Amino acid sequence: MQTLTETKTQLPTLTYTRNPGMALDLDWVASVQANTSAIERRAASLGGRRSVKKDFQAAWLLKAISLIDLTTLSGDDTEGRVKRLCAKARQPVAPWMLDRLGLQGLTTGAVCVYHDMVGTAVRALEGSNIPVAAVSTGFPAGLSPYRLRIAEIGESVRAGAKEIDIVISRRHVLTGNWQALYDEMREMRAECGDAHVKAILATGELATLRNVARASLVCMMAGADFIKTSTGKENVNATLPVTLTMIRCIRDYQDRTGIKVGYKPAGGIAKAKDALLYLALMKDELGHPWLQPDLFRFGASSLLGDIERQLEHHLTGQYSAANRHAMG
Ligand SMILES: O=C[C@H](O)COP(=O)(O)O
């Protein structure tokens, strides 16, 4: 894998990339394979490599911040917590750090909340360009009545969510009912209207990497603007093998249709060095366009805290031996 080199972070402007989708191509779905042992070998080889040279780390950490969907998805969420989260999204690191780096106006990519908190988040982010993403459709299991799942999307859009993270019905994947998965995704896409739609596959519950690949493809055919690994609530969430599988499907879909679909690893990404590894992998496999917020996001509740700590150590020169090790 190449080492990331970039000395300056340019603040991204978010222009959404839309996926119009296509007719369900069952032959293509049937032909999808995933060579699990090769994928696992490649994933295992990634962790030990330095993904960013020390001189370039600050720029890449800032880039990572701009790609976070800063998330709170807890049963005990309150308006106060969501307001604090939004304040953090507006000003993710201390102003002195940005001054030191000659950068102003850095924000996270979005704020991600349950439907009930969309209104609070929209009000708290007024005047900023930070979109609110709502998890919808009976998150996280997606097992509430179908008409209610569809209705929830409309409610979130009307409350001001610009991005909707839907959960798919895992049973359609586990039973190979690709038509049902396609129809469900298509209807959810339509209900989102102008809002950007991310399809959460809950890959930890799909049994095989081949299922992950086929579900990725069907959701893209049905018009998902992003494919997202996990709700963060499964036993296994974002992993490197799943990431390789999904981003190669994104590449195949682009090769065949010319359409770029985004990728959102989510759940359990809490360390700055893991974030940098993901960015290096995206650059390697898909190229620069997938280092922008219209095509890449981290779904993460605690990643920002670790990035901030690493940035502070970087800028003050106070790298402890432990931190040097943590940053690889
Ligand atoms: O979609 C985002 C995930 O729920 C966040 O998961 P996390 O709390 O493990 O970072």
From TrEMBL:
It comes from the Bacteria. Pathway: Carbohydrate degradation; 2-deoxy-D-ribose 1-phosphate degradation; D-glyceraldehyde 3-phosphate and acetaldehyde from 2-deoxy-alpha-D-ribose 1-phosphate: step 2/2. It holds the Pfam family DeoC. One of its GO terms (cellular component) is cytoplasm. Its EC number is 4.1.2.4. One of its GO terms (molecular function) is deoxyribose-phosphate aldolase activity. GO terms for biological process: carbohydrate catabolic process; deoxyribonucleotide catabolic process. InterPro entries: Aldolase_TIM (IPR013785), DeoC (IPR011343), DeoC/FbaB/LacD_aldolase (IPR002915). It catalyses: 2-deoxy-D-ribose 5-phosphate = D-glyceraldehyde 3-phosphate + acetaldehyde. SUPFAM superfamilies: Aldolase (SSF51569). Keywords: Lyase, Schiff base. Belongs to the DeoC/FbaB aldolase family. DeoC type 2 subfamily. PANTHER family: DEOXYRIBOSE-PHOSPHATE ALDOLASE. This is Deoxyribose-phosphate aldolase. It comes from Cypionkella aquatica.
